[in-house]
């Protein structure tokens, strides 16, 4: 006790703090992929975690099932009432799909994969950060299974996040609720007449709803409208469901609107997730946004849509 | 064998914190309060008190690095914090070793210190923006209560096990 901090130890402590700052600086840099020691640790631990995750999910699922059984009668009645509606919608969907295919064939568009097409890979959740400062979950699929950074991750109900870091056999998913400033997803509101575009940017601390920002001030939004991914961000496919609009307001400068979105997926009790890879190729890196032709094209498209 | 049993137990606890407890945690079922488990760290403090400062700090750094790599995107925060607090609070004098209450209280103080240190770091680095009262009432105090009740229940078997490991280690050295 007497020599709590001798000179030598003080120097070691200072060196440690310098190393700490350097490490933080290194790991805060954007677009960093995992170094091989990190991959080794996450993969080794991930292997043990998967062994533990399955029985735990099974146990949790059992309680969940018991809970579900209580609500089954009520749910069944509501679902039955929706069933007639569903049949009508199905007919309409088939009709529209057929029409769409015919029109595409007429325009020779059959070769191109659209933004809708994707392949899904299922994965099991093996860990979640216990301190909840980061909203990260780990899944048991990695680069060896074809998973890349930035891919969308969904559950059966809707979008939950994107792949943040990939290791060889495991990957980390950043949930939509994470407070990271770079956690931004291009989305649109599926309104009657037009697409209202904007970004999903983290969560509102007070209400717990997702923030849907940068909406055109003139756009007409209604409560209850569905928010889906736009596929314009590059890696996500189009039309993955995010949630529905709960409320909206003009932002602090009155230049854009912000809507609050209740997520369709449940961020608690995640067990199985799907990692989405879209089949349409991503944009060329060569496109120059400052190029005159390019911007003109975009403008004319926008006008066309508004009409 | 007993040499590796410490690491093995801590590793299993680590898996329990991150995987099993997260699936069964109360906030997954709609409870507003967050319970952050610090079981690994409290056991490390126990080990530090009974087996000396160096051992405590060693395990603190090893599991801090694992925590950093697996659960956070920022390296070094937990490695430094757990190593440093384990070094400070591994008070291996006979009074602390004989008095179980003192040992338990040290472990709790260490867990509390770690929670505050991590909150400070995350606030500083812009990972979180929640204010202090919310942190205190919805995260810190529930976690503290949960960790305290866990360590209070398991303190006696834990001490027995650590003493057993120390004894076995000495016997193995003699052979």
TrEMBL record, chain A:
InterPro entries: Cell/Rod_1 (IPR042177), Cell/Rod_MreC_2 (IPR042175), MreC (IPR007221), MreC_beta-barrel_core (IPR055342). GO terms for biological process: regulation of cell shape. Residues 79-113 form a coiled coil. Residues 284-307 are annotated as: Disordered. Residues 289-307 have a biased composition (Acidic residues). GO terms for cellular component: plasma membrane. It holds the Pfam family MreC. Keywords: Cell shape, Coiled coil. It comes from the Bacteria. Residues 125-277 form the Rod shape-determining protein MreC beta-barrel core domain. Involved in formation and maintenance of cell shape. Belongs to the MreC family. NCBIfam families: mreC. This is Cell shape-determining protein MreC.
Automatic annotation (TrEMBL), chain B:
It holds the Pfam family MreD. Keywords: Cell membrane, Cell shape, Membrane, Transmembrane, Transmembrane helix. GO terms for cellular component: plasma membrane. The keyword Transmembrane applies. It is found in: Cell membrane. The chain crosses the membrane at residues 6-24, 56-88, 100-119, 139-158. GO terms for biological process: regulation of cell shape. It is a multi-pass membrane protein. Belongs to the MreD family. NCBIfam families: shape_MreD. This is Rod shape-determining protein MreD.
């Amino acid at each position: 006790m007497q020599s709590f901090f001798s000179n030598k130890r003080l120097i070691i402590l200072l060196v440690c703090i310098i190393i700490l700052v350097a490490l933080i600086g290194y790991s805060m840099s954007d677009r960093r992929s995992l170094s091989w020691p990190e991959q080794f640790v996450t993969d080794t631990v991930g292997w043990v975690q998967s062994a533990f995750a399955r029985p735990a999910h099974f146990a949790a699922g059992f309680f969940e099932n018991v809970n579900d059984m209580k609500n089954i009668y009520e749910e069944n009645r509501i679902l039955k009432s929706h069933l007639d509606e569903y049949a009508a919608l199905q007919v309409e969907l088939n009709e529209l799909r057929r029409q769409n295919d015919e029109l595409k064939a007429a325009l020779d568009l059959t070769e191109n994969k659209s933004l809708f097409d994707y392949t899904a890979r299922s994965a099991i959740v093996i860990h979640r950060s216990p301190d909840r400062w980061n909203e990260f979950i780990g899944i048991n699929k990695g680069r060896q299974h074809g998973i890349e950074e930035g891919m969308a991750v969904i559950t059966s109900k809707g979008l939950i996040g994107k792949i943040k870091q990939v290791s060889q056999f495991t990957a980390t998913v950043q949930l939509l609720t994470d407070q990271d400033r770079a956690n931004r997803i291009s989305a649109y509101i599926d309104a009657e007449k037009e697409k209202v575009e904007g970004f999903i940017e983290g969560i509102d601390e007070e209400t717990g709803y997702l923030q849907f920002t940068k909406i055109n001030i003139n756009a007409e939004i209604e409560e209850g409208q569905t928010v889906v991914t736009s596929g314009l961000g590059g890696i996500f496919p189009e039309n993955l469901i995010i949630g529905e609009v709960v409320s909206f307001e003009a932002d602090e400068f009155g230049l854009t609107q912000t809507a609050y979105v209740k997520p369709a997926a449940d961020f608690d009790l995640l067990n199985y997730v799907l990692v989405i890879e879209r089949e349409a190729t991503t944009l060329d890196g060569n496109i120059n946004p400052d190029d005159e032709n390019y911007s003109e094209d975009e403008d004319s498209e926008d006008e066309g849509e508004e009409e | 064998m007993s040499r590796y049993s410490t690491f093995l137990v801590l590793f299993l606890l680590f898996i329990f914190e991150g995987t099993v407890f997260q699936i069964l945690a109360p906030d997954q079922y709609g409870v507003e309060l967050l319970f952050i488990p610090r079981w690994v760290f409290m056991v490390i403090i126990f080990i530090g008190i009974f087996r000396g400062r160096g051992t405590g700090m060693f395990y603190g750094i090893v599991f801090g690095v694992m925590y950093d790599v697996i659960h956070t995107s920022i390296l070094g925060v937990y490695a430094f914090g757990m190593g440093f607090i384990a070094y400070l609070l591994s008070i291996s004098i006979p009074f602390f070793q004989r008095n179980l209450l003192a040992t338990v209280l040290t472990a709790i103080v260490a867990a509390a210190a770690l929670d505050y240190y991590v909150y400070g770091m995350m606030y500083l680095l812009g990972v979180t923006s929640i204010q202090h009262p919310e942190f205190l009432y919805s995260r810190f105090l529930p976690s503290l209560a949960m960790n305290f009740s866990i360590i209070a229940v398991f303190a006696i078997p834990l001490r027995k096990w650590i003493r057993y490991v120390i004894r076995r280690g000495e016997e193995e050295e003699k052979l």
